[in-house]
Amino acid sequence: MSFLAKTFSQVIARAGTTTALLSKPRYPTSLTYRLASGQSSQQSDNKEQKKYEYLLVDIKGKNSNVALVQLNRPKALNALCDGLMRELSTVLETIDKDDKIGCIVLTGSTRAFAAGADIREMQNNTLAQVVGAGFLDQWSAVAKIKKPIIAAVNGFALGGGCELSMMCDIIYAGEEAEFGQPEIILGTIPGAGGTQRLPRYVGKSKAMEMVLTGNRIKAKEAHQIGLVSAVYPANQLIDEAVKTAEKIASHSRIVVQLAKEAVNTAFETTLAEGNRFEKRIFHTTFGLDDRKEGMTAFVEKRKPNFTGQ
Ligand code: CAA
């Protein structure tokens, strides 16, 4: 395990955050400081602890193996400014290396998961600037995380917010959630995967309707058309997402990673190639201790003890 991977669990474990407290993070969120400073944990422990600017991070689950990441820019309805997206990718990449964490839940506030890319921030950008800077390129870091991410969406998931939820692996919605790609109203188009992922979730006709009108859909419809896999009362959403995350985290870490990669391959390739890839991954699990342990435990009628090997 890398130094950074160790520090994430240690920082949070030291502060004893096994129960939720989304509004008030109960641990010193010093990870940002360490990442930025590159100091050893001993050195940085002696300094004033610095909080994330745009995120709250907590550890959840009976076995403290679920990371809960909350977007926290309430005044702007979690508009995804550059600083927020940089912080989010850094935190997710660090969690991804933490052996103790088996699944991630990404959420926002009751009012907004995220109302899209920050319109004020990009309002005066020129073509040369956005091309030159590769504007929004760094967002794809979220889709490259190897651990499963469950998006728990309450309130608005619009534009980049809807796209961010679709970069996750499972989407759960609160009853009042609203999804949409309203970029057309702003004179632009989705720029973080909306035109590509949305039709894969909901089919061409519905995706066209949403992208070309900018109309929003409510959670119930999002469920009916397959954009989200479950809808819960808003105040139960995070608990339900954490429950699912705990179940995922109870399985072999390495096999979960392989399963996620196999399913994601379905969106990148032909059926024949995808089936070939799946078969190779399936065969590969036979080289793992965890595969042997899982089947042996079944035969011996006991719970498996996975080691991630
Ligand atoms: N960027 C920057 N600020 C935003 C924002 C955004 N995407 N969405 C909301 N805000 C800000 C508002 O400017 C407002 O700030 P002030 O109080 O300082 O004026 C604050 O959040 C609250 O918003 P509203 O007063 O508008 O709240 P509302 O309840 O009346 O409406 C809303 C809520 C329907 C979500 C409305 O804010 C809205 O339409 N937001 C923009 C949604 C949008 O167009 N998203 C797509 C952005 S482009 C994109 O995402 C490109 C991409 O593909 C990556």
Structure in words:
The chain is α/β, with parallel strands linked by helices. The protein has two domains: 55-120 and 132-249, 2-enoyl-CoA Hydratase, Chain A, domain 1 (Alpha-Beta Complex), CATH 3.90.226.10; 253-300, Lyase 2-enoyl-coa Hydratase, Chain  A, domain 2, CATH 1.10.12. 44% of the residues lie in helices and 14% in strands. Helix 7 packs across helix 8 and helix 8 (194-202) crosses helix 9. It is globular, with a radius of gyration of 20 Å. Acetoacetyl-coenzyme A binds next to helix 5, strand 6 and helix 7. Belongs to the enoyl-CoA hydratase/isomerase family.
**Strand content of the residues, in percent?**
5-15%
Bound molecules: acetoacetyl-coenzyme A
Q: What is the CATH C-level name of the largest domain?
A: Alpha Beta
Overall mean pLDDT score?
88
**DSSP helix count?**
14
